[in-house]
Every structure is written in C-alpha cells, then in structure tokens.
C-alpha cells in the first residue's frame, strides 16, 4: 500500500502525489521573502570592520575594513567571515566548528553585542558591521580569544554528573539494569 501523508491541502496517498505536493510546497516557500535575508540580498555591497591583531608583528590592534557582495554570500555573519578569508584576505583568523549554534566556537562581539557568528544574520546598513573578539579575554590572534581562563574556571566548578561510588581503574563500565531503566522511564 502506498504511504499517506497529511499536507496543508489534505491527506495525500501515493508516491507521485507526495512528490508533487512536496515540490509545490518548496516552490511556495521559495517565493516568500524571509525577513532580513531577502533585504540583505537586495543591498549588495556591505562593509565589515574586523579587529586585526598579530602578536608576531608586535603592532597595535586595528580595525580593517572589507567590502563584500551579499548576493554572493550566505546570510550569516560566519558566511561573510568565511568569504573574506577564502577570497579576500587569507590571513584573517577566527574559530568555527559546527555552524549550528551548538559549540560556541564562533563566539565574538558583533556590533557591540556578544553572539555566535553562525546564528547572527547580516543586517545590511550604510555603516560597517564591526566584528571584534570576545571582550575581557586575551587575544591570541585576530578574532581568536585565549580560552585558557574560561576552561580553568569551567573545570573548577565541575559542571558534570558525579557518582558517589567509584569503581577502581580497570574495572568494567557501569551497566544500566532493567530496574534502573524503569526508574528513569517513570
């Protein structure tokens, strides 16, 4: 029997009908403008003032300005940084990892507010978008903060679960019994 699905237009049964409904839904979503990004693509060139510091050169930190075309860039601040690094200035240094707002690697100060570059949309304006490293941290290079102090503080508060009874090194792992699982399931 063919699978059935509930769609905005009712119940659809059959592979062909599901494919047609899916294509129609994609077309209708593509036609809509989703706020900031639709506006951002219209305002083509955008300036970015990015904090630059290289400890090897022993020079004072400064803001370097870059201009990129938003039509050829993704919607997020991280997309702009990657575009600048790949196509304009390969010496730009910053951290990134998951691109989903989970890891926090791309945390930086954007227009005076701390945030994750992977989650913040590019909001076009006549002024340059100012990007700096996290405040109150030492800077390793450009937008890379030294997180040694953060990790030491994190370790000192030990924000993880701890057992009351510990097994000796080399003993087997802790297995969950059916009774323990039943307690968790309620």
Main features:
186 residues; alpha+beta; five-stranded mixed beta sheet; two-stranded antiparallel ribbon; 5 helices
Description:
This protein has 186 residues and is of the alpha+beta class. The chain is built from 5 helices and 9 strands. It has helices at residues 15-31, 36-42, 77-88, 148-157, 178-185; strands at 4-7, 10-13, 45-52, 62-69, 107-110, 113-116, 129-132, 139-141, 144-145. It starts with a strand and ends with a helix.
Question: Biggest sheet, open or closed, and with what strands and sense?
Answer: 5 strands, mixed
The proportion of strand residues reads 15-25%
Helix content: 25-40%
H/E element order: EEHHEEHEEEEEHH
Number of strands: 9
Ranges where pLDDT stays below 50 over 5 or more residues in a row are 1-12, 28-40
Which structural class do the helices and strands define? alpha+beta
Q: Strands of the biggest beta sheet: in what spatial order? A: 4-3-7-5-6
Based on CA inertia axes, which overall geometry fits? elongated
Euclidean distance between termini CA atoms: 37 Å
**Overall mean pLDDT:** 82
Q: What is the gyration radius calculated from CA atoms?
A: 25 Å
| Tally of separate helices | 5
């Amino acid at each position: 029997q063919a699978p059935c699905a509930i769609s905005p237009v009712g119940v659809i049964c059959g592979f062909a009908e599901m494919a047609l409904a899916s294509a129609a839904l994609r077309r209708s979503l593509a036609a809509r403008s989703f706020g900031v990004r639709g506006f951002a693509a219209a305002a083509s060139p955008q300036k970015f003032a990015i904090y630059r510091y290289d400890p090897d050169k022993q020079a004072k930190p400064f803001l370097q300005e870059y201009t990129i075309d938003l039509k050829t860039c993704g919607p997020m601040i991280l997309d702009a940084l990657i575009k600048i690094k790949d196509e304009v200035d390969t010496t730009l240094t910053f951290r990134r990892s998951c691109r989903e707002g989970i890891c926090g690697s791309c945390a930086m100060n954007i227009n005076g507010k701390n945030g994750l570059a992977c989650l913040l949309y590019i909001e076009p304006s006549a002024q340059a978008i100012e990007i700096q490293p996290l405040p109150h941290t030492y800077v390793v290079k450009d937008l890379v903060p030294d997180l040694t102090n953060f990790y030491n503080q994190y370790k000192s508060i030990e924000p993880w679960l701890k057992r009351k009874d510990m097994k000796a090194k080399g003993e087997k792992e802790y297995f969950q019994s059916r009774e323990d699982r039943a307690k968790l399931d309620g």
